[in-house]
Structures are given as C-alpha cells and as structure tokens.
Task: structure prediction
Amino acid sequence: MDKQNKYFLSENNVPFQEFFKFGLSVDCVVFGYHKGQVSVLLVERDAEPFKGSWALPGDLVNLDEDMDEAAGSVLRKLTGLENIFMEQFYSFGSVQRHPAGRVATVAYYSLVNSDEYKPKASAWTKSIQWFDIRSLPKLAFDHDQILDKGIRTLQRRVRYRPVGFELLPTKFTLSELQELYEALLNAKFDKPNFRKKILSMELLRPLEEVQENVSHRPAKLFQFDENRYQELRKEGFAFDITLKTN
Amino acid sequence: MDKQNKYFLSENNVPFQEFFKFGLSVDCVVFGYHKGQVSVLLVERDAEPFKGSWALPGDLVNLDEDMDEAAGSVLRKLTGLENIFMEQFYSFGSVQRHPAGRVATVAYYSLVNSDEYKPKASAWTKSIQWFDIRSLPKLAFDHDQILDKGIRTLQRRVRYRPVGFELLPTKFTLSELQELYEALLNAKFDKPNFRKKILSMELLRPLEEVQENVSHRPAKLFQFDENRYQELRKEGFAFDITLKTN
DNA sequence: TCAAAAGTGTTCCGAATACACCCATGC
DNA sequence: GCATGGGTGTATTCGGAACACTTTTGA
Result:
C-alpha cells in the first residue's frame, strides 16, 4: 500500500486500493450478412443477471489479458469464430450499467460472412442466434445502446473504408456488392452509377470466373485487392462510396 | 461471494473477485488553437511513476463516478477548464501499460479556444503547458500513442463535423476559419473556393460587425449557427469540407 | 422467344477547381 | 499612393445523376 500510494497522489484522500475495484469487459457486435439481410449475433444468457435475456457476446477481461486479445477470445469461446475482422468502436462506463458491480465495457464490432457459419451455443449461453437488425429483441444490460451505436458506427465506416468486403465471400459479383451496401445503408442505388463508381477506384480485381447455375447472363466475379488499397492509401486516396440514394 | 458467483459463470474457474481488480482512468487530449498553431495541453507529473515526465491530463475514475463525468472532472481539476467540448475517441487496455497495476484508460479529446485560457498547475502536477503538436516531448505511459490517435481522430472528424468552431472565438472571420483548417489538416486551400464552400452550407451567420484596428480592409465577422446545423442535419445534410489542397 | 439480370453508353447538371480581378483600410 | 489582406466573378473541368439501351444466359 505504501509502495502503491506513491503512484497516485490524487486530491481526494481515497485509499489507493479503492481505485482497483473495477471490472472490465468486452462486448462484441458481430455483424453477418446473407442475401440482402444484415444480421447480428446474439446469445441467450444462461446466468444471472438477465438470465434468459438476449445479449451481445461478451465477457470479463482477465487481469493478465490484453483488451484486444480478450475481444478475440470472447468471439472464439462464445461463437467459435476465429480470425475475424474486429475493431473497437466505443466504451461504456456508467456507474449502474451492471447490477453486480462496477464494470466498464469496451465495445468491438466484427464482420463475418455468415453464409456458411452456423453458430452453436457454448459455456454460459443457452443459445446463440442471428437476428435481422431490423427486428431486434430487447437486450440485457445497456446492450441495446451498445448495439445501436455499433450499427451507426458500421454505417458510417462502411462508406469511408473498404470494410464491407469482410461481409462477402472472397469472390463476389458487383450486384452482390451493391445489395450489401443497400442493406447496410438502407438505401437504393442506380446500378450503372454504382458500378462506375466502384470500378473507377480500381480496388477490385476482376477474375476470369463467372457465376454458375443462374438462369440469366452470369455475372463476372471480383475480388477485393487489399494490396492495391494499401498502395492507393499511401498516395492519399480516400475510399468513399457516397452515392445518391434512389 | 456466493451471491456474486451466480452473476459470472465463466468457463475458467477464476474466483469472481479476481475480475474486479482493474483500475479505470480517463485521459484527455486537450486541443487548443491560437494564430495558426494547434497545440495540446500537457502536464508535468509530480508523482511516480514517470515523475517529471510530460503526460496527458488524466486520472483514475472513482467507483461512484460515471466515466463521462470523470472526464469532465479531470479537465476541471487539472486545468481549470469547464464546459468544454469533449468527446470520447478510443480506449487502451494492454496489460503492461501502467507500471502500478492493471489500468485501462478511456481517451477523450476536447477543444478549447486557447486565446484567453492561461493554464495553471494544480494538485499532483508540477506544471502545465501548451505544446505545438508539431514538436511534442516524449510522454509518460503509452500517452504518445494515445495522443497520436487523438490527433488523427480530430483530423478526420473535423472534416465531417462542424467541431472545428470550438477552437475559435465565437466571432471569427472566414480567413481565421480557413487558417484553422489549414493548421489542423496541415494543408493549404484556395481562398475563393474555401469561402464559397463554407458559405454555401449556410451554417455561418454573418454579423454586422467587422474587424477593428487592422491595416487593411476589415473582415466581416461570422458566427457558427448551431440551430441551423441541427435543422439541416434532420434533413439529411452532411457537413463536409473536403477541398483540394494546394 | 421470353424473362431476368448483367453490363454499357451518353447526355445533363452541378459542384469543385483555377485564376484573375476589385475593394477597403492604415500608414 | 501603396502595401496588405478582404472579398468577388467566371470560365473550365470533372464527376455524379439520370436514364435508355444492349448482351448473355436458362428455360
């Protein structure tokens, strides 16, 4: 205590240990996308408090664990997902946000191509499920607020950074890309203009392959070119798909 | 403990209390602006660790204090500033970022019209001082990293939200505004084009007043119209001052 | 041949750029 | 008058918007 007290000489005479009584958690807004629908992965809690309620996947951080690391662990343990795009977006720290004590939480969002991924419950979750972001249940804690902020953050970032591609399979058609943006931003774009805009950036590598088993002219497949993006960024290029919505 | 254990049934069998051993702090990047110079307020620490080093103003959060509230308090206690624009931007939580124990920190930035404000040291700070953001000292803890992220965040946000005005006096000339943006973004703009762009948004209310005691044609004074901005926002207007840099 | 979606081209319009020029003030 | 910044006008360019059109496939 003496050793510690010399570290924090704050005005108020609160003993040092009083400060080290916070819980720290990470919560994750996992976005998925499939055929025009943007969804979010929620878990059904099998523990108090809010047992039986839906909540964002999240957990307390261990003392010997970096925060970013913890975020990855949560995802792996609660959803089985690994090596997924993840980014911190906001932290929530009001006094009464957790009934069991003072817990601050750092929120991350991650992007998954939900096509193949079939979630499965684990540990202290009764079940786990995708929810369309247009019809969400009431959530535990302040997770409604966190999720809301997560959605807004994604909608903003997706316009200025090429993160949307994380929600698609590696190979995709331009129409699929357009549908994705329309779903994310809840808008409609003009097809020719969308194509021109996205192609003019020269971030998509056209493949030799085309769609198969479609009863119409098969579409060319494209792939996002990460290297190209990094190059352009160095030259001051700014990704931007602001287009007029119909 | 029994009561508490039912709240967190996580996979690992770490006792519940082990999770409530975090310190939580807030750190604040206070931006100031004066005559073409963007600066940041730093304090010289008068306590271990890093006694004598420059650091961002920050402090541990009290258990009964909301995080946002704490951010405001820090500013008031360490700098005397009150009712200042403040926004959270990122959190830092690696295990070893604080030598005294596990402390996660939530970073805020705030914007001050530094013209009149003369900082004065207080509490556990030896001194407090403005530093031009182009020549910064090495900082304590991971504050270099926090400050760097703060600067980048401001540079991004200032282009898409009318926050820059917080750095100017209530009444300002268009040239002053342009200089501010040029300093923030480290760029040069074409004067006629800058004016047209900013005036076309109709966010500035022209006043009847003009500059005084200048040995050239006196400039008109303007004022940012917050109400007008809120109106426009509802109609879908997006603030944007992306201009070609000369 | 028809439906369905892929994919292209062209005109129009507005906003950003580049740049020349005029205006008001103090000294 | 002239230096100094304030302030304006305009031709040009470029990119987004609107919209009509052609192409390729399966059935």
Summary: Helices of chain A lie at 2-5, 67-79, 143-160, 174-185, 191-200, 226-234. Residues 173-175, 191-192, 195-196, 211, 214-220 of chain A lie near DNA strand C (CB under 10 Å from a C1'). The longest helix of chain A spans residues 143-160. The CA atoms of residues 54 and 153 of chain A lie 21 Å apart.
